[in-house]
Amino acid sequence: MTANDKREILVFAEQRRGRVHPVTIELLGKAIELSNRLPLMVSSVLLGRDAEGEAQELIYYGSKKVYLFEDSSLYNYDPILYKTNIVALAKEINPYAILFGSTHIGRSLAPRVAASLRTGLTADCTNLSIDEDGAFIQIRPAFTGNILAHIKTKTSPSMSTVRYKVMQRAKRDEKREGTIVKMTPLPNAPSWEVIDERVIEGINLPDAEVIVSGGRGLKRAEDFKMLEELAKLLGGVVGSSRPLVDEGWIGKEHQVGFSGNTVKPKLYIACGISGSPQHLAGMRDSEMIVAINSDPSAPIFRYADMGIIGDIYEIIPKMIEKLKRR
Amino acid sequence: MNIIVLTKVVPDIERVKFDAVRGVVDRSSAPQEINPFDLNAIEEAVRLKERHGGRITAISMGPSDVEQTLKDTIARGVDEAILLTDKKFAGSDTLATSYALSQAIKSTGDFDIVICGEKTVDGDTGQVGGEVSEWLGIPYLPYTSKLNYEDGKFKARVELENIIYEVEASPPLLVSVTKDINTPRLPGFREKLNARKTQVKKMDAKGIEADEGRLGFNGSPTWVYKIEVPEEGQRDCKIYKDPESGLKEIMIMLESRDLI
Ligand SMILES: Cc1cc2nc3c(=O)[nH]c(=O)nc-3n(C[C@H](O)[C@H](O)[C@H](O)COP(=O)(O)OP(=O)(O)OC[C@H]3O[C@@H](n4cnc5c(N)ncnc54)[C@H](O)[C@@H]3O)c2cc1C
Ligand SMILES: Nc1ncnc2c1ncn2[C@@H]1O[C@H](COP(=O)(O)O)[C@@H](O)[C@H]1O
Fold first, then answer.
1. Beta carbons within 10 angstroms of residue A167's beta carbon
2. pTM confidence score
3. Is B189 exposed, middle or buried (0-12, 13-18, 19+ CB in 10 A)?
4. Could you tell me if A117 and A245 lie in one domain?
5. Cβ neighbours, 10 Å, residue B238
6. Which entry of A70, B133, B139, B223 is 20 to 30 Å from A148 by CA?
7. Would the CB of A277 count as within 6 Å of ligand 1?
8. Are A19 and A152 within one domain?
9. What is the whole-number distance in angstroms between the Cα of residue B160 and the centre of ligand 2?
10. Domain of residue A315, CATH code
11. Is A289 in the B-facing interface, judged by CB distances under 8 Å?
């Protein structure tokens, strides 16, 4: 079979303010892996303005083809304009599958593309594979993370949104070659007029290397200060279990778990967190997990590498002291 | 203003059991409620109506036994509740669900806005709203945390994680709201009593003039073919009962891993 007969596995290369979102590189990593199981060609679609540099990067990260739609109206995300072009492309190339990151952009765009193509879409996948018959398999946590559902799609293409920080990133290699295919954007009435745009300098939990998380072992909202101090000393940020977010003690962007962020830091310190399946779903794959909990039977200890049984109000100040004394 | 809210009746997810043999949620194991995220959609509809007048229709697809629970939408300020219920809807994935909902919306006549929740706690896809907007061919404003109506246009705050757009868009359109948009009010005693006396309007596949091939199992391109109980992923934890020795080991670990 020549390269030209290969069906494509198409990655939506999400761009924000001109830069490709890192989830795209993870999607490419997975697409490359899948293309070794079935003869597929890895390609990506990028919509933006002056985006050729980023398109070239996608080639270095393993795209054999980058379909590039450039227009000033595509710099900002617009569900209808993006959908129109991706649907037209999908009808032309008839890909095997289309992958989106499970970001707000991916999760709002993919449904419009899927409904327009009258095809299936699986949300927030944590794994993808191909079975012996060449069928695409999408795996996602269901029932609040207690089970994993394996999902197949009867129609073509299969479409998935994929959770950030669960797949391996593709490796960058400047020796890789590929083609940038310049596409002519199709006109359509935009979804909205953007009157104002702001970027908030919030924390970015998924990208943090060290996370110190607090759970219901904390007695007051102010006690997050103690965790913050520890996190700062370690060059990290503060995370939280869900109940404290629901209480309004800390912002949702700090939540770790099934309905919050998936994180994979070098170090995760769980302070006063019991280790519910929903919390574990978001941090289980951290490189090093340290748990501090007063209850020896807390499930978190079974998923941690090191644990101290004791009171966080005694142990964390001591740890802060030790780090400061260095 | 004609406002439509999409709302699903779900089992109380904190209590519901999973039937691992049949691979489905055992709905009978827990009480039902309005999907918590949809309470924000209903509240936002009520606020729009308070400011601009109009009529709110709640549309829900589900088995017929959710009828009583659906009356809660009326207690919260919805004028009419419609339940799409028919054996032909059974087994619908998000594409089939969104198709049926869009047909029902069309059958109610002209509308200015459709409001839905960010996601359901049982399906947890957050896809249905976007797919409905595509079937209807109208703009979709996702992750909306602020909504106003002025001079014939909707003004909304769309949150794309760290990027926040303030946008303007013309009706008709579909908005999915986040939990931050408002705090749902609790229905009063009198409202609850009145709601109990109202009727939920039921519609079937014929009533919404649906193409039957697009409904239920047949109209659903995705299917769950296997359920897996995830690998535990447990680790060998070194446990310290004495904080001093634990902290000492942690400091050694931090150093050896170049974390300090
Ligand atoms: C649909 C759904 C989605 C969910 N999504 C998430 C999610 O994304 N993230 C999430 O975290 N949860 C989520 N949950 C909630 C989850 O089920 C648990 O309720 C939650 O994770 C428990 O949080 P916790 O460990 O902080 O609290 P608890 O379970 O109450 O644990 C507190 C722990 O602190 C310990 N402790 C108390 N005092 C001290 C002290 N002084 N020193 C040391 N230890 C102390 C206790 O021994 C206990 O183990 C979700 C639930 C549902 C139904
Ligand atoms: N069966 C249904 N009936 C009515 N509305 C629904 C239904 N399923 C989903 N929705 C709406 O679509 C939103 C997203 O749902 P989901 O895609 O299932 O996470 C929900 O918050 C509801 O507003």
1. 23
2. 0.92
3. exposed
4. no
5. 16
6. B133
7. no
8. yes
9. 20
10. 3.40.50.1220
11. yes
The DSSP bridge pattern shows strands B153-160 and B163-169 to be: antiparallel
Nearest residue (CA) to ligand 2, atom 8: B8
Residues of chain B numbered 173-192 and touching chain A (CB < 8 Å): 176, 180
Using a CB-CB cut-off of 8 Å, the residues of chain B touching A148 are 227-230
Please state which of the four CATH numbers 3.40.50.960, 3.40.50.620, 3.40.50.450, 2.60.120.1140 is assigned to the domain occupying B2-214: 3.40.50.620
B166 in A contact zone (CB under 8 Å): yes
| A189 in a structural domain | no
Do the domain assignments include residue A160? yes
pLDDT in tens, chain B (260 residues): 999 999 999 999 888 887 777 767 788 889 999 999 999 999 999 999 999 999 999 999 999 999 999 999 999 999 999 999 999 999 999 999 999 999 999 999 999 999 999 999 988 899 999 999 999 999 999 999 999 999 999 999 999 999 999 999 999 999 999 999 999 999 999 999 999 999 999 999 999 999 999 999 999 999 999 988 876 678 999 999 999 999 999 999 999 999 99
In a domain, A197, yes or no: no
The continuous run of DSSP H or E covering A279 comes out as helix A277-283
- The whole domain housing A137 covers 3-183
**pLDDT value, residue A2:** 46
Which among A107, A108, A166, A199 is the top mutation candidate for probing chain B, defined by the most B β-carbons within 10 Å of its own β-carbon?
A108
Q: What is the pLDDT of residues A193-244, one digit of tens each?
A: 999 999 988 788 999 999 999 999 999 999 999 999 999 999 999 999 999 9
Per the domain annotation, does A195 fall within a domain? Answer: no
Please spell the DSSP secondary structure of A69-130, one letter per residue.
EE-GGGSS--HHHHHHHHHHHHHHH--SEEEEESSHHHHHHHHHHHHHHT--EEEEESEEEE
Among A119, A148, A183, the domain-final residue is: A183
Same domain for A274 and A168: no
Q: B60 CA distance to ligand 2 centroid (A)?
A: 8
Asked if B93's CB is within 8 angstroms of A153's CB, the reply is: no
